[in-house]
Amino acid sequence: MSLVVEVTHTVGRFHLDVRLQSGAGLTALVGPSGAGKTTILNAVAGVLRPDRGLVRLDREVLVDTEAGTWRASHRRLVGYVFQEPRLFPHLTVRQNLLYGRWFRRHLAGGISPDEVIELLNLSPLLARRPARLSGGEKQRVALGRALLAKPRLLLLDEPLASVDQTHRNEILPYLDRLRAAHDIPAVYVTHTWAEVAERATQVVEIDHGKVVFCGSALEARSRMNVGR
C-alpha cells in the first residue's frame, strides 16, 4: 500500500501545507493539538475538499484539484475511526457492526463479522446499545465497524483521546492483535508518543501545518530521546 498526500488548505488563520508518503504497517501522525493532523486525515477520507493538492492511494487518484478529480468518500474504501465513537444510539452493538458491512456487501473478501467479534472480544456486548457501553467498549465497536467496511486503509484519529487510562490500556492490545491478524495499513493520529512508540512502522511529525519530520520508528525514537 502506498499513500501520497500533497495538499494545501487554509481555514481562518490556519494554513496546512504538507507533502508526505506512507506505506504498509502503522504510520503515526504525531504533533501537538491544532497542528493539522486531523485535517490530513479528513482530506484522505474525503471529509474535506482541500484548496489545492493531490491524494493518491496505491495507483488510484482520490483527489487532484488541478485535474478536477474528486472521488466521493463512500467510494474510497477507507475506514475512519474518529475521536468520538459516533455509534448509532438506537442500534445494538451487532447492528452497529453490520451497518459498516452493509455498504460493502457487493465486495468480495474482507474480514468476517465473526472474526471481528472474536478479535475485539465483542460477544458479551452484541445485544447492548451504546448507552450501556464504557468508553473503551464504544471504541472497540467503532473499530469493528470500520473493519467490516472492508477498508484498504484505516484512519484512526486519536481513538483513545476520550478514553481514560485504564481503558486505553485495554484497547491498545486489540490494535496489536489487529495488526498481527490482518495486514491492513493504518494511519494513526496522536499527540501522545507513548501510544505508538512500539507500534509504528513510520512516524510523521506535524507542527503548525507542516511536516517537520518523516522517518522510521527507530529514527523517531532517537529524535524524541534527544529532547523533542
Describe, in plain words, how this protein is organized in 3D.
The structure is a single chain. By secondary structure, the chain is of the alpha/beta class. The protein is 29% helix and 28% strand. The chain has helices at 37-45, 93-102, 113-119, 135-148, 165-181, 217-225; strands spanning 3-11, 14-22, 26-30, 52-57, 60-64, 69-70, 78-81, 153-157, 186-190, 202-207, 210-216. The strands form two sheets. Strands 7-8-9-3-10-11 form a six-stranded mixed β-sheet, sandwiched between helices. The longest helix has 17 residues, at 165-181. The protein is globular and about 45 Å long.
Topology, pairings included?
Blueprint: E1 3-11, E2 14-22, E3 26-30, H1 37-45, E4 52-57, E5 60-64, E6 69-70, E7 78-81, H2 93-102, H3 113-119, H4 135-148, E8 153-157, H5 165-181, E9 186-190, E10 202-207, E11 210-216, H6 217-225
Parallel strand pairs: 3-9, 3-10, 7-8, 8-9
Antiparallel strand pairs: 1-2, 1-4, 4-5, 5-6, 10-11
Helix pairs in contact: 2-4, 4-5
Strand order of the largest sheet: 7-8-9-3-10-11
Residue fraction in strands: 25-35%
Rounded mean pLDDT score:
87
| N-to-C SSE string, H for helix and E for strand | EEEHEEEEHHHEHEEEH
Low-confidence stretches: none
Count of β-strands: 11
Structural class: alpha/beta
Profile the largest sheet: 6 strands, mixed
Number of helices: 6
Helical content (DSSP H or I, runs of 4+): 25-40%
| Silhouette | globular
**Computed Rg:** 17 Å
Distance separating the two termini: 30 Å
